[in-house]
């Protein structure tokens, strides 16, 4: 008779896998996409299981980002650019109050003129003498507290809606081109040595854009049309109002918004960009003609 003592020795010990991003951290969880081990700090909940950060980033690139009706990226926070524009206008107004001749240096002044500030007389060259920046800077200045309050309230009401419909980039383009359109018409028609300030041209451009956007989306637009009509009447009736700037901004903003909203999808960026360039070309030609008339 023999005796079998049996098999002796320790069983193989299974080693827990370590997180591929944090060596030394044991884990029994794997990414459902790449099957690599991941620790709790690297886990991102998925519809089933967890994904590692790299797979999450890779997947995000393939997700189509939501677009506005005009083709712009959908803003993550509606009204952010509008608030920035309001802040810029407020800061500019504060500087106007604390700086002696800030308004005279940056307001829309067609040609050379003499203005007295704090008892000091200074000759300012104006747009016709090369200070073309006034065509834009004047759109961020205001003549009084009531003036800036009214304009900023209108921007606060209308801006976020247009911004959400167009996207940030197109909204900024519309605002600035409308401001320039208002300044251009004022430059063409206002007295040569008058001063014009205010964001009204840009805001009237937003009024026109709101009308276009409302129509494009199939919503009721009679209220917007009434708003535009009332403000236009006030522009012609009230004294010391630049109706030229208001009308120029309205025409420009409506035209640009129309190109943004109705551009064919397959050539949308091309059409929208061309519309902005065409508007700028027309305004540059008008500015050049007025400058020639004032300096001849």
Give structural notes.
The structure is a single chain. The protein has 296 residues and is mainly alpha-helical. Helix content is 55%, strand content 5%. It has ten helices and four strands, in the order E-E-H-H-H-E-E-H-H-H-H-H-H-H. It has helices spanning 53-62, 80-98, 102-106, 134-137, 145-166, 168-189, 200-216, 222-237, 243-262, 268-295, and strands spanning 44-45, 50-51, 113-117, 120-124. Strands 1-2 form a two-stranded antiparallel sheet. Strands 3-4 form a two-stranded antiparallel sheet.
Based on CA atoms alone, the radius of gyration comes out at: 31 Å
Q: Which series of helices and strands comes N to C?
A: EEHHHEEHHHHHHH
Biggest sheet statistics: 2 strands, antiparallel
Q: How much β-strand is present in the residues?
A: under 5%
- End-to-end Cα distance, whole Å, is 131 Å
Entry keywords:
296 residues; two-stranded antiparallel ribbon; two-stranded antiparallel sheet; elongated
């Amino acid at each position: 008779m023999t005796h079998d003592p049996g098999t002796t020795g320790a069983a193989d010990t299974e080693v827990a896998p370590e997180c591929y991003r944090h060596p030394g951290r044991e884990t029994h969880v794997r990414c459902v996409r790449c099957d690599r081990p991941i620790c709790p700090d690297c886990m991102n909940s998925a519809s089933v299981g967890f994904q590692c950060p790299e797979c999450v980033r890779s997947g995000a690139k393939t997700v189509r980002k939501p677009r506005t009706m005009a083709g712009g990226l959908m803003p993550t926070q509606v009204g952010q650019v509008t608030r920035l524009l309001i802040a810029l206008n407020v800061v500019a107004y504060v500087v106007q109050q604390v700086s002696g001749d800030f308004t005279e240096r940056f307001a829309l002044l067609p040609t050379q003129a003499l203005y007295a500030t704090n008892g000091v007389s200074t000759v300012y060259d104006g747009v016709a003498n090369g200070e073309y920046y006034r065509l834009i800077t004047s759109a961020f200045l205001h003549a009084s507290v009531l003036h800036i309050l009214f304009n900023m309230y209108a921007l606060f009401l209308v801006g976020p809606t247009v911004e959400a419909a167009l996207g940030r980039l197109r909204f900024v383009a519309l605002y600035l081109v409308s401001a320039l359109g208002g300044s251009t018409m004022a430059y063409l028609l206002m007295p040569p040595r008058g001063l014009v300030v205010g964001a009204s041209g840009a805001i009237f451009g937003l009024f026109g854009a709101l009308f276009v956007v409302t129509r494009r989306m199939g919503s009721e637009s009679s209220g917007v049309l009434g708003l535009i009509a009332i403000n236009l009447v006030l522009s012609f009736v009230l004294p010391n109002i630049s109706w030229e700037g208001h009308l120029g901004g309205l025409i420009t903003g409506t035209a640009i918004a129309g190109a943004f909203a109705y551009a064919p999808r397959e050539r949308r960026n091309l059409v929208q960009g061309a519309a902005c360039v065409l508007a700028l070309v027309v305004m540059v030609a008008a500015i050049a003609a007025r400058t020639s008339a004032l300096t001849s």
